Amino acid sequence: MCEAPRRQSGCGLLIHRKRAVFHQALALAVAWLSFGVEPQLVAHRAGQSVAVLFRFYAKFLRGGDDEANAKISARLAQWRARS
Fold this sequence. Notes:
Blueprint: H1 11-34, H2 39-46, H3 50-57, H4 65-82
């Protein structure tokens, strides 16, 4: 880490930029998941494993229950129609 005082060097700015980039990546990953992009692709693009993706990113997803339930019901109806 940077040992120089923040006012005398760009270390504080560098730390701020790293944090900002992390939050931007987090926002993109959450957006991609909410848009229905495959989790494997989101994890790959975020440079994470799928396990890390779901452990840290998916908890930020809210309000998708109705849409998920509708998709599940539609698939079950298709499956029942074939049986």
